[in-house]
Amino acid sequence: MNDEFLAYVNHPRSYTMIHSTSCVYYVHSDQKDPKNGKWSDKFIKLKDAKDFAKKEQKKQNSLCSNCIKSFPSYHEILGIKLNEVPHHKT
């Protein structure tokens, strides 16, 4: 796997969402000027992206159900059950 990880920090809705760099939500986003927040730097380890998200002190920190759910071993490392991963709101 060559993916790196990063977090999207949404200020108005007070959450962070961790994505892989191949995620469609990241690839098709306006990475330089997001409307409601910011993208973090890229991290090689998912744990480092998770630690960054915690430091942002938002109400909710979660993993993208689109890209991260395909990595069940990461959920086990983080202690998150697959059915607890929130879905993106459209």
- Alpha-beta content class: alpha+beta
Shape: globular
User: How many domain units?
Assistant: 1
Side-by-side strand order of the widest sheet = 3-1-2-4
Largest sheet: 4 strands, mixed
> Mean of residue pLDDT?
78
Number of strands: 4
Distinctive features:
about 90 residues; globular; alpha+beta; 4 strands; 3 helices
How do the strands and helices of this protein lay out in sequence?
Elements: E1 5-10, E2 15-20, H1 24-27, E3 37-39, H2 46-55, E4 60-63, H3 72-78
Could you characterize the architecture of this molecule?
The chain has one domain (5-84). The radius of gyration is 12 Å and the shape is globular. With 90 residues, the protein is an alpha+beta fold. It has a four-stranded mixed β-sheet, covered by helices on one side. The chain is built from three helices and four strands. The protein starts with a strand and ends in a 12-residue tail after the last helix. The longest helix has 10 residues, at 46-55. The protein has helices at 24-27, 46-55, 72-78, and strands at residues 5-10, 15-20, 37-39, 60-63.
